[in-house]
Amino acid sequence: MRRLALAALCITSLTSCISREQADVKLQKGCKAAIALFMEDGNTIHDIKRTTFKTSTEFGNGFRNLMIFAKISDGWYDQDKEYECVFEENFGAFSSTHNATLYQLKIDDTYYGMKDNMINGDAVMLIDIENAVSQAMH
């Protein structure tokens, strides 16, 4: 038993741990990628003014809520916008890995992904969102 505990400690010290802050950076990149898919032609995220992270009050543990407060620009006109992403996430043993899937995206008053136990958006759109998010986070 003592050898098993020692072996586990040695393995843990050799692997890098993913911190909450590192995971949040990945989630923000994924959320930005999802948002970009829905921007009008010529518009870009000019500046992220603030991002908030918290455990989702709607879905509970295992779900991370992000609010992105951004300045959107078409090169002539800047506009302040809010976006909300909810990710389902899992940390591996000893926080050695982090996996997340976009569960819900809210742009203005429109939801994509899960809302009220229903899937919002067509299959092709949801696959495109998941591909963009996954590529941005890795």
Model description:
The chain has 138 residues and is an alpha+beta fold. It contains three helices and six strands. Strand 1 and strand 2 form a beta hairpin. Helix 2 packs across helix 3. The longest helix is centred in the first third of the chain and has 18 residues. It is globular. About 8% of the residues have low confidence.
Question: Which short descriptors sum up this protein?
Answer:
six-stranded antiparallel β-sheet, 138 residues, globular, alpha+beta
Protein topology:
Layout: H1 2-14, H2 20-37, E1 44-56, E2 60-73, E3 78-91, E4 98-107, E5 110-115, E6 118-120, H3 123-137
Antiparallel strand pairs: 1-2, 2-3, 3-4, 4-5, 5-6
Helix pairs in contact: 2-3
Classification by helices and strands: alpha+beta
> Helical element count?
3
What is the averaged pLDDT score? 87
Strand coverage percent? 35-45%
Strand order in the largest sheet? 1-2-3-4-5-6
- How widely separated are the two ends? 37 Å
Share in helix: 25-40%
> What does the main sheet amount to?
6 strands, antiparallel
Q: Total number of β-strand segments?
A: 6
